[in-house]
Amino acid sequence: MTPADPAPLIRFERLNKWFGDSFHVLRDIDLTVARGERIVVCGPSGSGKSTLIRCINALEPFQEGRLLVDGIELGVEGREDDRAVTRVRQRVGMVFQQFNLFPHLTVLQNLTLAPMHVARLPRARAEAQALQQLERVHIAEQAHKFPLQLSGGQQQRVAIARALCLAPQILLFDEPTSALDPEMIHEVLDVMGELARQGITMVCVTHEMGFARSVADRVVFMDQGQIVEQGPPDRFFDQPRTRRAQAFLERIL
Ligand code: ADP
Ligand code: MG
């Protein structure tokens, strides 16, 4: 955080969320993410990681607490403000485990769809910008192919380029390499590392601990809907402070 930009880009304040009446999935979440910061979120399956990051993009309502993205308040369930949701989504790009590309559209068409129809860019500009983003993920030569003609690693890089086409301030990744064959994982992680070095704010759910160590400024460890521990990656991996983090790391390392 620079002195000129003291406000965090993302701020959770004692956020609580339930699924239905009784399942308390996020518990008293306090978390701030500074502009340019790179966060890795890890923790056991079912601990609430996906739900947490989906809140940032207003894909999940929450019932208590506050959540501000770039100063824009996303209200609690029942008091959401559509304009705030739209403004937040303009700032946040998301990359999922399943790439969610349209199979009947070419790579280029997948990338120009939202810029043309949501952001109302003329086709020529949308295409020029799409090609730029494809270059950024080293895949411009595949622009006229269909997704299923590409490898999983290439498809995921297309999905990253698609998110970048809307010029987000924040990129959210939800286990972006979990659906990939092992030999393709590194090509996606390499691209994510390059984006991180270019200064984009990232919140990334991943179990790729090598990536966390080399790219993250901070690791956030969740268990049973709570943030149990957070800190710089070297400290988290080498000297986890809680038994729950120790047990998790013993299982995955
Ligand atoms: P993680 O990403 O850490 O594996 P999730 O955030 O996906 O965890 O899920 C946390 C818990 O919430 C899990 O027990 C999951 O089964 C449950 N859950 C997720 N989505 C829903 C939903 N739409 N309705 C009810 N329960 C859900
Ligand atoms: Mg998940």
TrEMBL record:
Entry-linked InterPro entries: AAA+_ATPase, ABC_ATPase_HisP-typ, ABC_transporter-like_ATP-bd, ABC_transporter-like_CS, MetN_ABC_transporter-like, P-loop_NTPase
Q: Which domain of life is it from?
A: Bacteria
**Annotated keywords:** ATP-binding, Cell membrane, Membrane, Nucleotide-binding, Transport
Pfam families (alphabetical): ABC_tran
Molecular function (GO) terms for this protein are: ABC-type amino acid transporter activity; ATP binding; ATP hydrolysis activity
UniProt cross-references to PROSITE patterns, sorted A to Z: ABC_TRANSPORTER_1 (PS00211), ABC_TRANSPORTER_2 (PS50893)
UniProt domain ABC transporter: residue ranges: 10-249
| Coiled-coil ranges per UniProt | none
State the similarity comment.
Answer: Belongs to the ABC transporter superfamily.
Entry-linked PANTHER family: AMINO ACID IMPORT ATP-BINDING PROTEIN, PHOSPHONATES IMPORT ATP-BINDING PROTEIN PHNC
- Protein name (record): General L-amino acid transport system ATP-binding protein
Q: Which organism is it from?
A: Sphaerotilus hippei
